[in-house]
Specification:
With 226 residues, the protein is of the alpha+beta class. It has one domain: Nucleoside Triphosphate Pyrophosphohydrolase, CATH 3.90.79.10. Strands 2, 3, 4, 5, 6, 7, 8 and 9 form an eight-stranded mixed β-sheet that branches. A four-stranded antiparallel β-sheet has the order 1-10-11-12. 35% of the residues are buried.
Amino acid sequence: MSEARLPQIDPRQVPAFQVDRHLPMIAPGQLQPAALRQRFASPPCWQPELVAEKKFMDRPPMQAAVLIPIVMRRAPMVLLTQRTQHLSTHSGQIAFPGGKVDATDAGVQAAALREAFEEVGLRGSFVEVLGQLPVYTTGSSFLVTPVVALVSPGFGLNPNAQEVSDVFEVPLSFLMNPANHRHHQVEWQGVQRHWLSMPYQDGPVERFVWGATAGMLRNFYRFLAA
C-alpha cells in the first residue's frame, strides 16, 4: 500500500523544502539480520514521528496491514511493488505488499503474509516475522499496521498482474539514511499537506518512494535510531 495521489497534484513536481542530512544514518551493522532480530526482541523506548495524514477522502476507517520485507542479501534490501495504473486507490504508486485485513485473517500479521502471497507470490516459508510498527493512518482512511519481516533469498515471485506492475528491491541502507529523506509541502483545498519522499535511482529508473510508504519507513528509521 502507499499514499493515494492527491487530485491534481504530482508529488514529483513539488520541490523539497528540507532534506534531513543533519540526522545520523543507521550504521550498517544495525541493518543486519541478527541486529534487527535483537532490536525487535528488546525494543527501545521510542515514539513514531508520523502517525496520521490529513484526511482527504471521506470514507469509514478500514483496517489494513502491509509487509515490510527485508531480503537477507549481503547488503539487506527492501522488497517493494509498483501498483498498476487502473486500480481505484493508490494507482501507480510504490508500495509495500499489503491490503485490507479480512474477517478470516487471524490478525494483522496473517493479513500481511496473505496479501504478500496474493500480490507477488511471496511464500510464507521464506518469511520470518520480526514484529510490528505503530499503526499509520493514511489520508484515505486506512489504518495500516506495518509488519516487519526478514526474507530468505531463493524465493520465487509471481506478481498479480491485476494489482502489481513491477516488483523491485531498494537497499535498506538507502532508506535508513535520512540524507535521502526529503520533505514536501503543498496547499490543497485550503489545507497544508506534508509528505516525505525517498527517490531511489535504480539504473535508468527513478523509484519515487513517497507518502505513506515513505512515512512508515521514516518510523522504521526512528525505531532503529532510538
